[in-house]
Amino acid sequence: MATKKKTLQKTDEEIERASELLEDLYNEYPGAECALIHRNAFELLIATILSAQCTDERVNKVTPQLFKDYPTPKAFAEADLHEIEEAVRSTGFYRNKAKSIKESSQLIVEKFDGKVPETMKELLTLRGVARKTANVVLGNAYGKNVGVVVDTHVKRLSNRFGLTKHKNTNKIEKDLMALFPQEHWTNLAHLLIKHGRNVCKARLSEAPDHLICNKYSVNCKYCNPNSDGK
Predict the structure, then answer these.
(1) Of 151, 171, 201, 215, which is the active-site residue?
(2) Which pTM value belongs to this model?
């Protein structure tokens, strides 16, 4: 007999506060979207792998020529590993990234008929793909809200805004999924990332004078010096 997964229970007050935050974020950042330039699911997968410990801006400088030289999973699968390494060197950790790209491309060709899989379970079989990368692909390439992307910005803001008490990304994701409607999960990440890059940065010289920070930053040392937050 199959057992149901336990879902986190949030209070009505917590859910209402999250709803207000979401509305304010939509109002502040209309049209927020994935910053990685891509034309299809495969390009987004590769760009997301490259974005680990690297800025989206740097990735976007590398990928146009990369996808021109290797336009398909088959092209990457058959490419010389050292050539891929040189092509992605500027994104950092290039040896691991090149190996992930090549091996993932090989698996896509051999097991998935050259198409990036559309389920979390299958995406996680690809080298270099964890939940964050899988959520990026599913949400932005396939329009499937399976989870919430938790990157460094989402992690920071989720704690500063009191949406979670956790540091573990999987636990943070579960808290966010319990607070926000599923149809907004992909956009929620875009909105938080936008605010994190523009306003609520990791290091600040002073508290940002911004409506969202003033209203929701309950666990931020800049907005609330007496808090235990960062």
Answers:
(1) 151
(2) 0.93
